[in-house]
Amino acid sequence: MPYAAITYRVKPGFEDEIAAIFAGFQRVDTPDLPSLQGAEAPAGRLLGTGVFIKDDVLVRVIHYEGEFAAVGRHMAAQKGVHTLEEELLPYLAEERDTRSDADFAAYFRNATMRTIAQLTVDTHPNG
To answer: How much is the pTM?
Structure first.
């Protein structure tokens, strides 16, 4: 069950304001990720998220199973995500357009950090 991290460059000094925005985040309508062709089986599942901020960097860590592209598609279709993105606009260091589902999905792909290690109890040599 992999993890992914999405970065946001934000204006420093607004950590409390940004924390308040995330505190009011409307969670997704379902953790199940729909497949592209409408197949009965979901393309995956959101297992959890965490959001971290330090100075001018905000990182959202996503724990999921299945296809990562399905996470982006699912998040792009969520009203709460678009509300959060709109509320974040004054605090972003670089403007971006995420109003449409396609624009959000493109940002989501481009802001994903490169994975260099993912260690779990399942991969532990004594596990």
So the answer is: 0.83
85 occurs within a structural domain: yes
d(CA 96, CA 85): 10
Pairwise CA distance, residues 75 & 70, whole Å: 8
pLDDT band of residue 88 (cuts 50, 70, 90) is very high
Evaluate the CA torsion angle 7, 11, 15, 21 in order and state its sign.
negative
Token pair listed for 18: 């940004």
Query: Can you read off the two tokens belonging to residue 2?
Result: 């992999």
* Residue 53 half-sphere exposure toward CB, CA atoms < 13 A: 19
User: Do the domain assignments include residue 11?
Assistant: yes
Q: What distance in Å separates the CA atoms of residue 8 and residue 13, rounded to the nearest whole number?
A: 14
- Please state the three-class secondary structure of 86-124 as a single string: HHHHHHECCCCCCCCHHHHHHHHHHCECCCCCCCCHHHC
Inform me whether the pLDDT recorded for 14 exceeds 80: yes
Range of the structural domain that residue 30 is part of: 3-114
Indicate whether 61 belongs to any domain.
Answer: yes
Structural domain count, the chain: 1
